[in-house]
Amino acid sequence: MERATIKDVAEAAGVGVATVSRVLSGGSASPATRERVLAVAAQLDYRPSALGRNLRQRRTGGIGLLVPDLTDTFFGQLAEGVLACARSAGEPVVTGSTGDDPEQEAELVGMLLEQSVDRVIAVPSGDADTWGPAMRAGMNVIFADRLPAAEPTEPDPITDLMLLDGVIPPPPPPMDVPSVLADDRAGIRTAVRYLRGLGHKRIAFLGGPGHVRRVAAFREAVGGPVDEELVVFATGSRDAAYAAASGLFQSRPDLTAVVAGGNVLGEAAVLAARELDLRVPRDVSLVMYDDVPWAELCSPPLTVVAQPGRDMGYRAAELLLRGGRRPRGVVLPTELIVRGSCGPRH
What we know:
single chain; alpha/beta; six-stranded parallel sheet; 12 strands; about 15% strand
């Protein structure tokens, strides 16, 4: 008879894998949920030790790598860096795609724990509820590109008022975990200053999952009261990105420039502008965060904020494989590469 897995317990208890992980690691859960999960675990003869107790003594070697989408060019570059460093150290890499879904990510984290993979590089989709129990169970984690969500990625006036009135507690601070990040703040600020220098005043931002720091940098760079209609969010899918870009162009024909927070959003902005007969850069200027091969093939070629994806993955793997003291976080520089997609606005 096969041994029960964490997924079996979650399905039988009617909860997510992340909830099972929290309960069995001593994390937060309601008394009723805790009782149900523990009862199911006992019934299925599931051993809590599979969640990582004495994990370091049982490790099988190797590195886990979790990214939102392996078909995304940037995440592919990051994965290449991880694989190159791991290969030089003779370490295998177990790769998983989370789809930017916290529940799917939690399930993959649980599977890695069960397989005694205690070293993980992750572009996180979940928050402390996903990653806290795993790290308490002995998992050594390096975050890359972004940090676990500590607050809503989209502005919510009702939530803001409830926070001010003390109705709900403030969000937890970012997790104190080593990370390798690009300097989003400098990159976005440089892009906005460049557009401002060309005379643009109505600049929009297209954001997506994990872009909390980029959105904050955009707001800071724009300064003053921000026109909230010019800050638009999409989920991670290409269809959602296209819908967000198209909706932005149609609802605000007065905008003159767009900063796309990632290459999927940049691609959507290019396609939407073309469908709506907006000429780039005469009608709208575009800057994309991420340099990908197709950016130079556009007509005109896209101006981009380049971030070192491969270096980010390589440095994350280096930090993970380094023994001894707890590694410190790394911030890598970005670079504005000016091409033909931005023009002056008079």
